[in-house]
Amino acid sequence: MSNENLTPMMQQYMEIKKDYQEEVLFYRLGDFYEMFYDDALLASKVLGLTLTKRSNKQEDIPMCGVPYHVSDTYISKMLDAGYKVAIVDQVEDPKLTKNLVKRAVTKIITPGTFSDTDYLSVDNNFLLSYVDHGATLYLAYGDYTTGEIFTTSQTFLSQKEKSQFFMDELSRITPSEILYSSATMPAKDGIYYTHLNETLQKLLPEVRDVLNSDVVTSISKINSPALFMLINYLATTQKVSLQHLKAVHRYDPEEYMTIDETSKYNLELVASIQTRRKKGSLYAVLDNCETAMGSRTLRKWIEKPLRNKAAIISRQDMIKSALEDLMRFDAIRSALKQTLDIERLSFKIASEQLSPKDCVALATSLDQFTKVKSLLTASPDDVLHHFGEKIPDTTALSHLIQNTLISDPPVNLELPFIRKGYDKDLDELYQASEGGQALLLDLETKERKRTDIKTLKIKYNKILGYFIDVTKSFTDKVPEDYIRKQTLVGSERYFTVELKALERKINGSKERAIERQMEILTALRSTIFNALGTIQNVAEYIGTLDCLFSLAQVARTYHYVRPVISDTPQLTIVEGRHPIVEAMGRDIQFVPNNTSMNAETYFLLITGPNMAGKSTYMRQVALITLMAQMGSYVPATAFHWSLVDRIFTRIGASDNLAGGDSTFMVEMKEVANILDHATNASLILLDEVGRGTSTYDGIAIAWAITEYLVTTTKAKTLFATHYHELTQLSTSLSGLKNLSIAVDHDGDQIIFLRQVIEGASDRSYGIDVAKLAGINDAVIARAKIVLDEHENKGQSVHVDVPVQPTHNPVLPFLKNLSEVDINSLSPLESLNLLQKIVEGAKMNYDKYSG
């Protein structure tokens, strides 16, 4: 349809829409956001709205709409369905123009920039930026609602290593949206992808104006294209101040334990395998936080365990101090319980959009944080005392807010919310307005007496203003000086010269009062904005404190102990327990188990029946290790360990049919990743490797993997298997020890004792487990006969054990090196690549020279 045939308003709509083809336009008309044409057809289906039509000169236009005051509900649904939303609002005062009010896009809302805390979970809502440049991968990610920004860059010898690193980071960060500029990139379900046409190598000039100077400086120093892309995108979509963005944190993945996506899933770190929700995960067990800031901090710690000994001990010291002063500990947690998520108020503070209710809630929270600070600094414990001293003092700001605003401000900003006595001029204006109300009552009484109309009332509405209401039965008594204003079915409405003068006086005072009230609120918002850095510092300290106190509370509840870091290779657990199983089954006595690995014995081969607890035992070793490197106490009687660089798991059966991978192929790819990246400082869990193929193939693969890990990688490994043939490796491989799960018998029934003991199991008890599962007696009896026949034919397998692997283990390193495209490298990338080559050569020399 030609624009000439459209109304001026629809012409305005079409002019805006042509620049926002990918977004659904929410176009403000009165108290509604309206959608037209294809946007209306789409939104009506996604949101379940009634599709209507807007009359036009040539043809009707499809349209639908949502109420302005509940629009966030509908916007969140559009985002969940995979669409972006552009908000179109009035950008000029209707009173100042006689023409169509000017409108423009005031914000673009995407999955990674959605900021309504009523619809966001407590966890961070991250936006990730990805730039693949030659041998180097640049990443930047941030949470618009909290102001956090993180970035890193890594140089790789091969595309495979680069892709694996990205997928590991993607699993840890779990962003809602990814920005990318390359032609293709690794994809993952459940994430919104935004392709940008170009990667700018600098901040846009207009973007610098909406950032604070510290952030501009930190971005300029880092000089990352992914970071530029992220910040520019935030500025161009949000179209508001980004003063709340914190100085960028540049991190090195080597500072943290690496946990790939498979391990994160298998260990149920932040979500249960069964439900894919928080309940039933390690995160759920450890999250006793009283604040949202603490919960977000805890999740980050779970997904990024430390590799720095001093940092781990520092967290342990804080937990120890908290548990040694339980009265102070409980008082602090009680204070934290009464606070708001002030970290997520930061973007409202930056754009100076805080409502009076937000301001009062902020002040209440700051008061509680001041109480926490006082409790900490009054402690005789040095650790608590010093932490309390670091929390900034916000007493003056809190007092200013409370002295300015009433304790329970209304949502409607036209109603009074400034405390009486704070501003003399405002008090006088309200007094005049209230006095006018008294004069109205006096006038109403006087007119009743003068006219002898006992039902006469003076009323008000927004359209007519003040008027005299007279029912039809008394219109014959209306005086001549009454001027008719409106006729209704049952009454007539009038005004008088005296009423009009009084109305001007009342409205004048009320309008000036509202204006003065907003001036005071604006000044208060500005003062709070000037304290934004301090408020964010408080939030960061409180989040850390709440997280540590949550870990202390869990340790107190479940009787966890402080682990001890060893400088020599070992992993020794005394009476270890699985934290999730223990927490989920409080009425069942958990059977604890010991684990012992060191420089001489680091490979534990575990045999025993299904359902006996092999997987639980292995997972608890990994979880205890991970918790220890978070700085947490652990579920054991004692734990001594040397720091772990990575945790790998190969547990359970799954396929990737959409990607063309069978269950066995997925298993082999996971094992390949482990063999390629594990070091002697890694912890590996293997469960039933090789079971997806024939018996002889499976045994051969499992045998070769075991040899390689014991003789070459020398990582701490727990390998659960039903291939009893592997147990004979303990006689020839000095680093390997056999363990088994103890069982007992009650007639034909087996009883799982859940106890891990030294030595190999003599059988797998598969038929016994099948019987427990309910397989009928006829099948069980036949299975026993078949088993006896195979065992009597001597179907056992014997393999000679070579002392060393026969292949050249340096070949993968050389292959990666040969694939590097030297011509695509910048000078800095060349230096980074050279560093990788030196590190790789040193690692291979140290591993294989002996």
Shape: elongated
Question: How many individual β-strands?
Answer: 27
Q: Termini, distance in Å?
A: 79 Å
| CATH architecture designation of the largest domain | 3-Layer(aba) Sandwich
Helical content class: 40-55%
| CATH superfamily placement of the largest domain | P-loop containing nucleotide triphosphate hydrolases
The CATH topology of the largest domain is given as Rossmann fold
What is the strand content? Answer: 15-25%
Computed Rg: 35 Å
Name some characteristics of this structure.
850 residues; MutS, DNA mismatch repair protein, domain I; Nucleotidyltransferase, domain 5; MutS, DNA mismatch repair protein, Chain A, domain 3; seven-stranded mixed β-sheet; six-stranded mixed β-sheet
What report would you give on this structure?
The termini are far apart. The protein is α/β, with parallel strands linked by helices and 850 residues long. The protein is elongated. The relative contact order is 0.07. It folds into five domains: 107 residues, DNA repair protein MutS, domain I (MutS, DNA mismatch repair protein, domain I); 140 residues, 2-Layer Sandwich (Nucleotidyltransferase, domain 5), CATH 3.30.420.110; 129 residues, MutS, DNA mismatch repair protein, Chain A, domain 3 (Orthogonal Bundle), CATH 1.10.1420.10; 102 residues, Orthogonal Bundle (MutS, DNA mismatch repair protein, Chain A, domain 3); 213 residues, P-loop containing nucleotide triphosphate hydrolases (Rossmann fold), CATH 3.40.50.300. The strands form five sheets. A seven-stranded mixed β-sheet has the order 13-23-24-25-21-26-27, with helices on both faces. It has a six-stranded mixed β-sheet with strand order 3-4-2-1-5-6, with helices on both faces.
